[in-house]
Specification:
With 223 residues, this protein is an alpha/beta fold. 43% of the residues lie in helices and 15% in strands. The protein is built from six helices and six strands; from the N terminus they run E-H-E-H-E-H-E-H-E-H-E-H. The protein has a six-stranded parallel sheet with strand order 3-2-1-4-5-6, with helices on both faces. Helix 1 runs parallel beside helix 2 and helix 4 runs parallel beside helix 5. The longest helix has 29 residues, at 114-142.
Length: 223
């Protein structure tokens, strides 16, 4: 019998969902009729600006899903716990957690700003722990759940001048493996995906730069 892969009625809790990969996941799931909890650290006062949780919510609803936009600093454990509680109150639970939020900074180790290191570890790695820790009890209660951590090719290999990012993404891969073992018999799967260069706002629009990045990919194209 063919498995039902529809996300209709499922609730997805997505960090970093106001743009890029997170927003693309939200739009696709919304097309199936999913409920999307959109987390991002939105500071813009104008809801109509693109790249905010509010514009993302409009896109989700236009695609056919229900949206709950939440402005959350995912470095704050209490704020993440509160966001999970809001999601459960609104939609009755969390079926899927997509840990997608991430930032980058490029610098040699000896001049790498301490505050940048701390922020990258907090946002790219520690937030994955905070959100997983908060969401797991609800998944265990249902005996079903899906956790997908957006790591990176840098969770498997390294590049120079990206020490914090590489360290954090290797940490995400390791954390994923540990959680997968803990939940293997509980109806909950935990996986990481490790994308390479993906055509998002973060890459910019300079044709020469995009062409150069594509050369580094075996398929000679951006994701």
């Amino acid at each position: 019998q063919e498995a039902d892969m529809s996300l209709k009625g499922k609730t997805l809790f997505i960090t970093g969902a106001s743009r890029g990969i997170g927003l693309a996941i939200a739009r696709r799931a919304a097309a199936d009729g999913a409920n999307i909890v959109i987390l991002a650290k939105t500071t813009e006062a104008t809801p109509k600006l693109p790249g905010t949780i509010y514009s993302a919510a409009e896109e989700v609803q236009a695609a056919g899903g229900q949206a709950l936009p939440l402005a959350v600093d995912i470095r704050d454990e209490d704020a993440v716990l509160a966001a999970v509680a809001q999601a459960v109150e609104r939609f009755g639970g969390i079926d899927m957690l997509i840990n997608n939020a991430g930032i980058q900074h490029v610098s040699p180790v000896e001049t790498f700003p301490i505050e940048k290191w701390d922020a990258i570890i907090a946002i790219n790695l520690s937030s994955v722990f905070h959100a997983t820790r908060a969401a797991l009890p609800y998944m265990k209660a249902k005996k079903w759940g899906r956790i997908i951590n957006v790591a990176s090719a840098h969770g498997l290999v390294a590049s120079p001048f990206k020490s914090a990012y590489v360290a954090a993404k290797h940490g995400v891969v390791g954390f994923t493996k540990s959680c997968a073992l803990e939940t293997a018999e509980l109806g909950i799967t935990v996986n990481a995906i490790c994308p390479g260069y993906i055509r998002t706002e973060a890459l910019g629009n300079d044709p020469a730069t995009l062409a150069e990045l594509a050369k580094r990919v075996p398929a000679r194209r951006l994701g």
